[in-house]
Amino acid sequence: MSFNRSAIIFVIFIILLGIIGPQAFFVVDQTQLAIVTRFGSVKQTIVTPGIRSKAPFVDSVTYFEKRNILYDANPDALLTSDKKRLIIDAYAIARVSNPLLFRETVQNFQRSLTRVNDLVASELRKKIADDNQIDIIRNKRQQLMEEVRYDVVPKLNEFGMKTVDIRIKRADFPNEIATAVYARMQAERKRIADAERAAGAQRDLEIRSNVDKLATIIFAEAERDANVLRGEGEAEAIRIFAEALEQDPEFYRFQRSLEAYQQFFTENTTVILPSDSELFDFLESPKPVSGD
Q1: Residue 285 belongs to some domain of the structure
Q2: Could you tell me the residue range of the domain that residue 54 belongs to?
Q3: Does residue 105 fall inside a structural domain?
Q4: CATH code of the domain containing 87
Q5: What would the pLDDT profile of 62-101 be if each residue is shown by its tens digit?
Q6: Which pTM value belongs to this model?
Q7: 41-46 and 69-72 as β-strands: parallel, antiparallel, unpaired?
Q8: Nearest 10 degrees: CA dihedral of 130, 133, 139, 142?
Q9: Which of 142, 173, 204 is the last residue of a domain?
Q10: 27 Cβ partners below 8 Å, 6+ apart?
């Protein structure tokens, strides 16, 4: 009987442990924060991982994400200082740093998503309204985000959240003017390309003109030098002929006759000369060449 009573007590203990244990103990993961409440009142705020205890059936545990959370809202059309619209697509990264304050202000992730997106959009709207459209697109994006982050950080701290980063993914023209902007950009690029081509054509013409001028000068100088050499050669030939004529006029006369034969006589050639022609005398009976 004593054995049966002990066994029954052990079984009852196991059953109670199985029922009460999950209600008395809970685990906080390293990626979580937790708050223990009793009838709506906060009893514990847990920011470190581990196994914790609570009053069974009385206390309840609320878990919060400890890791960074991405708050990515839909793109919004914002008005710049020059009354032009920009499509701004921004995001924020934050995490829960104070779970008690987070629970008291925004309560859960869904409400925090709305609050953070609204807060970032509101600050963006204020900052963009102070700058021109083209300045924001060209060179003020980083400065703009730093100013927005500076203003958002203390406000998120009021929600028990720590701001990690805020960025603009895209800052673009609205669809209705994007086509016109792209057309102007294409026209500008075409104008630059046409100017480059015109400058290239002008440079090509200058180079060709210089080359033609240089070629003309070289040809003229070569022709001049050739004429000089030709004149010198002819002068030398005349001098030689003159010397030969002085030495033997009859031989010179005979040589000139041979040159005439070469010019006049071809195949089947008939030559008619007057009877008193010197060439006729040579053809009829050439005079013997006298030796020295």
Answers
A1: no
A2: 2-65
A3: yes
A4: 3.30.479.30
A5: 888 888 888 887 887 777 787 777 788 888 888 898 888 8
A6: 0.51
A7: unpaired
A8: 60
A9: 173
A10: 50, 51, 52
